[in-house]
Structures
1.
Amino acid sequence: MRIPAALELLRPGQWLKNLLVFAGLAFALADRNQSFDMLPAVLDAACAVVAFCLASGAVYAFNDAADAAADRIHPEKRRRPVASGRISPRAARMEALAVFALALALAGGSAGAGLLASVAFYAALQVFYTGGLKKIPWVEIAVLAFGFPLRVKAGAIAAGVPVTPWIGLCTFSAALLVAAGKRRAELLALGADAPLHRAVLKHYSERALGVAVAVLAGVAFACYAAWTLLPATAAKFGVDSGRLLLTGVPVAMGLLRYLQIVLLRGGGGRPERIFSRDPGMLGSLALWAVSWIAVLS
């Protein structure tokens, strides 16, 4: 059954990334030094997830209205509602405004000013991105990646739990890796037409992005390993830091699997499919969850 064009415009398939909003709450649940009312925290975090789904959907709709001509050059994006002519750019902008207003109302009405400010800042960042930052090489990748630690922080604010900056750093480095991999896949898929679809691609090369992906994979693992070895982290979870480092094994497996997909297979253009469908990546995520349960039990 085909998704209605108005819903497709919001790209619900991309909403999986908004589950990062729960990250701060998940780590707080395992914190031996934290105590809080679980049900209100979970409900507030869930409202934050929905608010970010709506806000990101509004951003997608706005971007599709602005990029319709360029999207028609892309073999997959040309099927999007605006690029294919199923929704007009004006209707897409009106839908984006309505959905974003709903996101702000939900954020402000559920978790208060902190979540409202986070959602508003996310939207403002995306507006600046569309307005010009997307044309600046490497900066545009950093702007895209910054939205992920912002989700983690927003979720912690909504749930009323603290989150260490190290979690944000780990999330940011991993998001940089995924964004660089996506740009490399676009460059390979579109070839000489790549700058016609996304102007910033003329400033990149397959080699430079490949090196960036490899380096960022190492940085992401180093950040995660360093966090597990911190005395404060061991005290937080009430276990030895050496045991926590064991949870880095499936992290390394996942990173190596991602490098294989991006560097050897030329993939990475649809990261949401990798994280939701690839058996190797799903296996790594499952092992990571199991390793945490084993370490904390």
Note: The radius of gyration is 20 Å.
2.
Amino acid sequence: METLNGKNILVVGATGGIGSSVTKLLASSGAKLFLAGRNVAKLQQVATENNIPVERILALDISQPDAVNELKEKYFQQLASIDILVNAAGIGIIKPMDTLTEADFLKTLHYNLYAPFLLVKAFLPAMKEVKKGLIINIPGMLGKVPMAGAAAYSASKYGLTGMMQSIREELKRTDIRITNLFLGGVDSSFWDTIELKVQREKMVQAEEAAKAIWFLCQQPTSGVVSEMVLQPFNHQAI
């Protein structure tokens, strides 16, 4: 396994349950972190708890090109290179087709597919310069297996899976690795606004999902974990 001590890591979505938990694990392993997220107060709290300088955090809407360009600029003002990009950001809109609106559909694609595209466009060139790096995205199980009521969400996550697999093919002559983490049923704020009866006590805990990302960040340079699937042992839908 690779050591994380001294590695330069960008965590996007650091204010969420998974993002804040993985930030704690990475910081305790000696990584140099830059954090991005939407919630300013939460971002500052996570940074303070993990002794991350305020110069290495940025609150932004990652679905906006200008915001991602600002993130790129401020990141490289603080850190000379990027070893790992962890994208733990995204939104969840779970509705049947009868109530799913065009605005819902486009918003889901904007945050779950277009935003990761912007991030890769911004930070992949720096990895290509040195021909090494690691990009971790979280398509989730709905990026592999469809579910009723998840037309928009699955479309965005299937798209993310396909996009990253295609980019992986472009990078075969480098040591830049792509990992897709397929999480199923994580007990996080994702479910707070979703009108679907689920048993959250049977879901994977956010802290355990974060440990999976922490593990993936340490994968050996001689190989790559192209995919990891982590899902609850028992059924969560009621």
Note: Residues 102-130 form the longest helix (29 residues).
3.
Amino acid sequence: MSLHVCEIFRSIQGESSFAGWPCIFVRLTGCNLRCRYCDTTYAYTGGESLSVRAVLERVEALGDGLIEFTGGEPLLQEPAVELMNALARSGRSVLVETNGSQDISVLADEVIAIVDMKGPSSGESEKMDLANLERLRAKDELKFVIGARADYAHMLALLAHVDTQRNTANVSPLFGTLAPAELAAWMLADGLYARLNLQQHKYIWQPDARGV
């Protein structure tokens, strides 16, 4: 079995409640969505074909600790799902950032899903699998990218079906479009129980830097 891999690297986790922690990233090639604001379009195609063993060796060479599978869309590759599940069941802390269109029930209970539910600004909100809101396990998280009020209203409608005390909702201002202070003001005015989610890697390094 082989995986289509864009890049594997160690950096600082930039998002979610795990932000700030060292993390090994396995970025897979291929995505079924074409979000207008995508910042990883280079992962749509290309990369290299690696055996599961080769991926595992590269991950292990980068050390212990947190691992995140991202993309592209990592749940499109069945061998990748099997690897994520195996790593988590072995005791590794495994995150999977998925674009909201794929069924997360394929993930082992030990894997933490971070489900990015797309809003209207993405152009792909109609492709979300809304049943994922019911599939969330206790440690899973949600992510919402907010570029305009319409995205914020869309998020509020979805969060009405989520226990945000149980599942962290990460609310991200669209980088370069919506000021974090403006989004923070909306959240505070509404008494929203959610986490303002700034993309730390874009503040630490250049916003378009790869492998960080």
Note: The chain has a mean pLDDT of 95.
4.
Amino acid sequence: MVWLVFCGGLAALLAGAELFVRGSSRLAVAMGVPALVIGLTIVAFGTSAPEAAVGIQAALRGDADVGLGNVIGSNIANVLLILGIASLVSPLPVSTRVVRVDVPVMIAVSALFWLLCLDGTLGRWDGLLLLALTVVYNVWLVSAARRDAPPVEHGPGGPVRRLSSVVYVLAGLAAIVIGADWLVEGAVSLAHAFGLSELVIGLTVVAVGTSMPEVATSLVAGLRGEQDIAVGNAVGSNVFNILMVIGATATLAPTPIRVAPAALAFDLPIMLIVAVSCLPIFFIGYRIGRWQGTLFLFYYAAYTWYLILRAKEHDALHDFSFVLTRFVIPLTAAVIAVLAYRGWHRRRAAAEERGRR
């Protein structure tokens, strides 16, 4: 039964992602809206549904710190795990708008989240501020994208096609949420069967499980050639997770959410660093190639392994941290900085050459 639940959840997740991406793409064409806008709004909102469900349910039962940790872990996974896997399947082109607008917004929202947590709590007024910014962000995003993007012709079919596209989106979203729930349930049961502790399960299976909709949606979008939806989904989900999910969780929580010292000292800074790292990596050739995807996956594996060693208070934690912080991370940062500078220099030289002509 455990294997049936696990496999059934995976099948429902993939089928739901296919329906969701297909419906979103058709809806974008039918309404004359760029696919990137759909990826940053409807798809991002829909694939954040598991995090929202976990956060709101935890808030109502007075255990809102569960939702807080889930959002932090999911935001790290959205970049390192999801974009890493999707770019290995198919290299992802990154639009100029994502680099110049959407990633900076993700960085700003992540920094605001960290600042709100610095006093050790997230109160109702913090939540209301984040929910208000959710509305402002969506209104600004759609209006700016429709104004600046190239005109998109409305597709055929009129209201009937739009209605069928909405049905696809809703059906896909329902399958995604149900599939994610089954997948996490099956994975947790399998982990118990293999003798893993509750803490290790929470740090790995549950965090990855609530990000499975983003994984499935981005993979299917990449395979279907809808790369704007794949990249926009990951970036938009991170913004929605903070503004909408944390906003709703903090607003509905009966008492202020306590932010654990470990989250302030490690997990929140890592989430912000991951968001900032997107700028130079995306800037290199305006694409996420397979080597960038491999780098993302390596760091996600390193982050997960660090959490496990920390949870078990393992003797290898000190040596692992030393090698990672003194050698691996500085070397990676230096290589990315050099490649980003070379990419900027090439584009500047090309622009000057076009100017002389």
Note: The chain has one domain: 2-314.
